[in-house]
Each structure stands twice: as C-alpha cells, then as structure tokens.
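User: Sequence in, structure out. Go.
Assistant: Echoing your sequence, followed by the structure tokens.
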Amino acid sequence: MKNNKPRAIPNCLKKYRKIRGLRQKDVAKILGIKSASMVSRWEKGLCMPNTLNLFKLAILYRTIADALFIDVLRALRDDVHKAEEKVLNTSINLRSTNKQLRSGT
C-alpha cells in the first residue's frame, strides 16, 4: 500500500521567527492573519504562504524571500537549468539539421 502523505515543503520560517524572538501568534497578528495555525502550517511545510505574505515575512524577519525557502529555490533552479539546457540543445540541433537540409549537405 502506498503512503499518500504529502511531502513537507522545506523552509527556514521557524528559524527566522525564532531569531526575531517572535511567537507564531505574534507573526499572525503582524501579518493580519486570523489564526496562528496558518503560520504553523507554513512552518511545518504543509502549505506555502501566498506571494504577499511571503514578502511580508521576509520584511518581518529582516531577510529576503529566497532565504526563507532556500532549499526549494535550489531544487527549482537545478530543474529549470536542466530543462533549459535540454530545450536549447534540441533547438540548436534542429536549426543545424534544417540548415544542412537547405544547403544540401
């Protein structure tokens, strides 16, 4: 039987909150969120804050948004670079083949 438990989204939210000496309840109040449980869900990696809240967190924690999800950023960067390389190599090969066909070589 497969384990359908979703994987947690790695982040540094709790680390940065603790450095600032804030409680989840404090963060929720400052960000205008009704409940600290949402902050808890973000920290546990069950879901991600929306873009606006991500920037608010970065401002509150005196860092940049990238730093809050650095592991996700690194993995995405690797994936995008691999996909880009694959597409560009395919595109270059196609252009080269088309050029050869037109020139008759």
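User: And one key feature?
Assistant: Residues 19 and 75 are 25 Å apart (CA to CA).
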